[in-house]
Each structure stands twice: as structure tokens, then as C-alpha cells.
Amino acid sequence: MNGYIYGNLKFHATITGLEPNTEYAFRVCAFNLQGDGERTPPKKMMTGGMPPSPPRPQSVTMLSDDPPLRARIDWQPPEITYNQPINAYTVYYRPIDNFGNGYEKLEVPGTQTYAELTKLFMGKEYEILVSAGNDDGWSSNATEKLTTSIGVPDGEPLNVRYDISAGQVWF
């Protein structure tokens, strides 16, 4: 990549389009109508890193439809890691209609691309958030949803009242 600075009072340059977590070497020389001057020795610099892109959820599967309910979420690693390893994944989940309460949180090693969700309730829709972390921070969240089964009633109806009149039964 070559760049030029025109004018005799400019002593700096801004170089754009650099990739995160990448080493670059810079050399500077002056030039005029008579030709190029001597180049400086290369100055090596490393750009700062960035958090990875979000993980890519693949599936959410119920492991048991009877209490205690359990589910598994699987994902692919982030597409963009900026040449850094993924240190960990964080999984947050909660029922969608339960905004007042916090999320359940799971931390997963960076080499594992799944998590098991526990403490689930029947007949609820869940929001699941997955993020990936490296030495430079955490990705934005990838979002998935899960709806648990309603299940069969576990007992007979309680407090049933009957009213019989005119040959009909009312509940």
C-alpha cells in the first residue's frame, strides 16, 4: 500500500482500512521534482484487536419433555475472530414473559460449542442469547428462541362446581 502527502507543512498521515490485530510496517521518504529521498527504516506496528463476530446458532433441542425440563443449544464459532482464539462463550436465557427477573447465565469454554439449559418451565417461550469472548472483549449477542411443551395435567381438576337445571349440567 502506498500513500502520498502533498504540501511541505504536513508532518503526519492518517492511514485507513487497516485490519484489527494485524502487524504493519511503515516507511517514509520525502520526494520532490528531483526524485525520491532516502527511505526510513521500516517501523513495525500492531493494530489493536477487536471482539469477535457473534456465534452462529445452529439448533435448540429439548432433551426432556417431562420435568425437570432440559434443552440444548448448539452453535458454530464466530466467522470473524481477528486471528485470536475464542476464550469463552456466555449463554443467557429467560422466559420472554418474565422481563422483571434476570437471566440464567452459563459460561462455556471457548472450545465447546453447545450448552445445556436447565431450570426450564413448561409452556413457556424462552429468549436465548449467546456471545463469544476473546482477549479484546465480547461479541454482540446471537439470539434464539425456544418454546417448551405444555405437558399433560398432573392431577384431576379441583373445586369443580355443578349446577343441574332443566335437564342440563353446568360447570
UniProtKB/TrEMBL annotation:
Ranges for domain Fibronectin type-III come to 1-50, 51-155
List the Gene3D superfamilies: Immunoglobulins (2.60.40.10)
Name the domain of life: Eukaryota
PROSITE patterns per the UniProt record, alphabetical? FN3
Question: Is Cell cycle among this UniProt entry's keywords?
Answer: no
> Which UniProt key words apply to this protein?
Repeat
Q: What is this protein called?
A: Fibronectin type-III domain-containing protein
Ranges where the record places region Disordered: 37-59
